[in-house]
Amino acid sequence: MVTPRTNLDRLRSLTPNRKRSGDWAPMRRSERLAVGYLRVSTARQASEGVSLEAQRAAIESECERRGLRLSAVFADEGVSGRRSDREGLAKALAEAKAKRAALVVYSLSRFARSTADALAMIEDLDRSKCAFVSVSENLETASACGRFTLTVLAGAAQLEAESAAERTRDALAHLRANGRRTGGSVPFGYRAEPDGRLVAHPEESQVVAAIVRLRSEGASLRGIVETLNANAIPTRGAKAWTLTQVARIAKREACPACGD
Fold first, then answer.
1. What share of the chain is helix, strand, coil (3-state, %, to 5)?
2. How far is CA 62 from the centre of its chain?
3. Which residues contact 218 (CB under 8 A, 6 or more apart)?
4. pLDDT by residue (tens digit) across 181-233?
5. CA–CA separation, 245 vs 236, rounded Å?
6. What is the rounded CA–CA span in Å between residue 43 and residue 206?
7. pLDDT digits over 52-107, tens only?
8. Are 203 and 188 in contact, with CB atoms under 8 Å apart?
9. What is the CA radius of gyration of the chain?
10. CA–CA separation, 52 and 45 (whole Å)
């Protein structure tokens, strides 16, 4: 009696097919791609800070270390990280999603200054199966730890940006309180000294005093405008007064630290 051959016996008897001329070689695993994004906010930063060239070199090195092929690089030069409508960033995101490539940036601050914006864009990349890599912070979003670290660092970047804005605002308020010019045109009623100090303009300061007096007596802003124009009292540009101009002066004089 012949014992039926089992599947295992059949497998053992199989021999490899010889490769014939013209056969295709086995397909290699898909190449892992990356898209780079660079940004500098000012020309000074480009020359004295981390230039676009330095950012690109760091990104290229990181891609080589991670076994990624850098297929494209996009940049925004002279554009604030607070803006979400950056042309270079939009192209980088679109390219990464189209190729399911990792988006690689030099640092979180080069990517976005707002935590909400950064996380929204990274979540959008994640939905398209794209990783996010930041070179300076040595993080990526392929792991839970990386995603947590990203959230913390993005929050720190936003805190620093908001703190800088507060310091600038406080410094300008201090300058205004001490009678110094903070940029822009010289407010009506003043003239600028060579050292930047604002001093009262002899003629214009009388007009400002009249506006303040009329306002304290209960006159409306529109009524003050009509009074100034009826008495042929011109503005600095020798034009008729407008409601906006009078309102600005009245507000400034009521709160000197608020600026013009």
1. 50, 15, 35
2. 23
3. none
4. 555 678 888 888 877 777 888 899 999 999 999 999 999 999 999 999 999 99
5. 11
6. 44
7. 999 999 999 999 999 999 999 999 998 888 888 899 999 999 999 999 999 999 99
8. no
9. 33
10. 10
Average pLDDT, integer, range 103-118 = 88
- 0.85 exceeded by pTM: no
Q: How far apart are CA 188 and CA 207, in angstroms?
A: 9
Structure tokens of 220?
């409306």
DSSP the chain: -PPPPPHHHHHHH--PPPPPTTPPPPPPPPPPEEEEEEEESSHHHHHHSS-HHHHHHHHHHHHHHHT-EEEEEEEEES--TT-S--HHHHHHHHHHHHHTPEEEES-HHHH-S-HHHHHHHHHHHHHTT--EEETTTTEETTSHHHHHHHHHHHHHHHHHHHHHHHHHHHHHHHHHHTTB--SSSPPTTEEE-TTSBEEE-HHHHHHHHHHHHHHHTT--HHHHHHHHHHTT---TTS----HHHHHHHHHHHH-GGG--
d(CA 49, CA 109): 13
Structure tokens at 78: 């002279």
pLDDT at 46: 56
Is residue 106 within 8 A of residue 59, CB to CB? The reply is yes
CA-to-CA dists, residue 164 to 45, 140, 161, angstroms: 16, 27, 5
Could you count the other beta carbons within 10 Å of the beta carbon of residue 89?
Answer: 26
Residue 161 near residue 115, CB atoms below 8 Å:
no
Q: Give the chain's domains with CATH numbers.
A: 33-163 (3.40.50.1390), 190-258 (no CATH)
Point out which residues pair with 69 in neighbouring strands: 33
What is the SS3 assignment for 199? strand
